[in-house]
Design brief:
There is one protein chain. By secondary structure, the chain is an alpha+beta fold. It has 2 domains: 78 residues, GMP Synthetase, Chain A, domain 3 (2-Layer Sandwich), CATH 3.30.300; 60 residues, SH3 type barrels, CATH 2.30.30.100. The protein contains 3 helices and 8 strands, in the order H-E-E-H-E-H-E-E-E-E-E. The strands form 2 sheets. Strands 7-6-5-4-8 form a 5-stranded antiparallel beta sheet. Strands 1-2-3 form a 3-stranded mixed beta sheet. Strand 4 and strand 5 form a beta hairpin. Helix 1 packs across helix 2. The longest helix has 18 residues. The protein is globular, with a radius of gyration of 18 Å. It starts with a helix and ends with a strand.
Length: 155
């Protein structure tokens, strides 16, 4: 069996021409097991947001490519959707596209008695994420300590 990262990488390679042809871009690809089921989850995006038709078009075309390549040994469920408003930042491209945006992060372990922080994403590198806090101070967090970081959602 190919590893999770190899499957995600290969799936993303096959997905790229499909998303290009449909006027959307890849946000993320995940291959995960939940309970006894495997899921290949594809998150797509475009300026102004994706709609159900975008998801359906990508799902149909990508499913045909996956069937032709047949590189995933296990049975799996394909899901194609938007990453949503409070999207997680996982990859460098997510961080790059979110510079200047308000984010909330949760740490695995408390720092100065707190596990959750909110601020404006100022910059990032391989090891750290730097936020400008409401007070105006900049605060750096080690990426290895982040349980999750996502865009905030204001209603």
């Amino acid at each position: 069996m190919a590893g999770k990262k190899e499957i995600e990488s290969r799936a993303e390679e096959l997905l790229k021409p499909v998303t290009d042809a449909n006027g959307v871009r890849i946000y993320d690809v995940e291959y995960v097991k939940e309970g006894s089921d495997w899921y290949l989850r594809v998150y797509i995006d475009k300026d102004g947001g994706v709609n159900i038709q975008d998801c359906e078009n990508v799902s149909r075309a990508f499913s045909d490519r996956l069937d032709a390549e047949d590189f995933i040994a296990e049975a799996y469920i394909l899901e194609v959707s938007s990453p949503g408003l409070g999207r997680q930042l996982k990859k460098d491209r997510h961080f790059e596209n979110s510079i200047g945006e308000e984010v909330e992060l949760k740490l695995f372990e408390a720092l100065d008695g707190e596990k959750e922080f909110t601020g404006i994403l100022e910059r990032f590198d391989r090891d750290t994420v730097t936020l400008r806090m409401e007070s105006g101070e900049e605060r750096a967090f080690k990426r290895s300590r982040l349980a999750v970081i996502r865009l905030t959602v204001d209603f």
